[in-house]
């Protein structure tokens, strides 16, 4: 049985570990359900919908198969749609240190 986790003090406990949190205006974050968008889901969404790349091109950029891009994209789109329609917070997970920069160029 693992040892109990020590209590931690965070400046913003609802955002701890996330790169960004988007939420409906006028509702405190603590009152909202939060959906978590993984960094690879965001990358797939950005490459395909933001930059207009095909799933195959996005897969080459990310170093994964087209099928994996398709699954990531479907998951990301579903989470974004649910957050918008049902007024939920959308938390974007921060990039981990082992992720290499994309070979496809600028993400902006």
Descriptive account of the structure:
The protein has a domain at 40-95. The N and C termini lie far apart (46 Å). A three-stranded mixed beta sheet has the order 1-3-2. The protein is of the alpha+beta class and 108 residues long. Helix content is 37%, strand content 13%. Helix 1 crosses helix 2 and helix 2 packs across helix 3 (66-85).
Order of helices and strands: EEHHHE
| Main sheet characteristics | 3 strands, mixed
Strand residue content:
5-15%
N-to-C CA distance? 46 Å
Write down the overall mean pLDDT. Answer: 80
Write out the strand line-up for the largest beta sheet, numbering strands in chain order.
1-3-2
CA radius of gyration is: 16 Å
Helix content: 25-40%
Low-confidence stretches: 8-14
Shape: globular
Number of separate helices: 3
Kindly state the number of beta strands: 3
Query: Which oligomerization state do the chains in this entry correspond to?
Result: single chain
Structural class: alpha+beta
How does the SSE layout of this entry go?
Layout: E1 18-22, E2 34-37, H1 39-50, H2 55-62, H3 66-85, E3 89-93
Parallel strand pairs: 2-3
Antiparallel strand pairs: 1-3
Helix pairs in contact: 1-2, 1-3, 2-3
């Amino acid at each position: 049985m693992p040892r109990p986790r020590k209590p931690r003090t965070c400046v913003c406990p609802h955002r701890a570990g996330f790169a960004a949190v988007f939420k409906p205006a006028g509702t405190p974050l603590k009152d909202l359900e939060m959906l978590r968008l993984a960094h690879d889901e965001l990358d797939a969404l950005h490459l395909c919908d933001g930059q207009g790349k095909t799933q195959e091109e996005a897969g080459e950029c990310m170093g994964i198969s087209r099928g994996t891009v398709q699954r990531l994209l479907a998951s990301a789109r579903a989470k974004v749609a649910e957050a918008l329609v049902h007024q939920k917070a959308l938390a974007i997970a921060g990039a981990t240190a082992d992720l290499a920069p994309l070979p496809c160029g600028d993400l902006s």
